[in-house]
Design brief:
There is one protein chain. The protein has 81 residues and is of the alpha+beta class. 28% of the residues lie in helices and 31% in strands. It is built from 2 helices and 4 strands; from the N terminus they run βαβαββ. It has a 4-stranded mixed β-sheet, covered by helices on one side. It is globular. The protein starts with 7 loop residues before the first strand and ends with a strand. The model has no long low-confidence stretch (mean pLDDT 93).
């Protein structure tokens, strides 16, 4: 996964639930199937809920890493429609 191409990035560290997931959904809707989205988000509810919700919708969570600064990076591939 070292060669993972990121097609779009989104920083939702300033947003609060449920707007965090709304912003992620809007970003994914603007992307093509198979593209990857990197999401920077705070620890807590976003880390607990967003990856699970994206999986339920059929998207593929590629990685979730702790940035060491209270924020996480989630990389997800948009599911084909």
């Amino acid at each position: 996964m070292a060669d993972l191409t990121i097609d779009k990035t989104l920083d939702i560290t300033d947003a609060v639930c449920p707007m965090t997931f709304v912003q992620v959904k809007v970003a994914l809707e603007e992307m093509d199937d198979g593209q990857t989205l990197s999401i920077r988000m705070n620890d807590g509810e976003p880390v607990q809920n967003i990856p699970r919700s994206l999986k339920v919708e059929g998207h593929k969570v590629l990685k979730l890493t702790d940035g060491g600064d209270g924020a996480y990076e989630l990389v997800v591939r948009k599911a084909g429609g």
